[in-house]
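hey can u check if this looks right to u? its 111 residues, i copy pasted from the old doc so theres a chance i mangled smth
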Amino acid sequence: MININVSGHDKATVVEASGRIDSMNANQLGDALSNEIEEGNYNLVLDLNAVDYMSSAGLREMVSTLKKAKRASGDLRIAQPSDRVREVLEMAGLYTIFKIYPTQADAVESY
């Protein structure tokens, strides 16, 4: 089960996800992120503080969104990943391609 909340800020759009992101629902995250890009919101912050599980399908959606945002001269930045998500990002080697911030406010202000 995944919950997604989207909110606009001055510098970026924040997408907050909570719950488990797995192969059954990762497309929901991808759709939410893609919708923001299609609406012209290219500076995205994905808050993963309340995500307790992230599968490779979720990681694929994040990488796909990062590519779309960069093509539109934007970015996808990660805010406060939970410990379990941080481990998955490290194991997958994604710490080198995503900008990761300790708080949501830091990520938004980085734009």
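Residues 2-109 form a domain with the Transcription Regulator spoIIAA fold (CATH 3.30.750.24).
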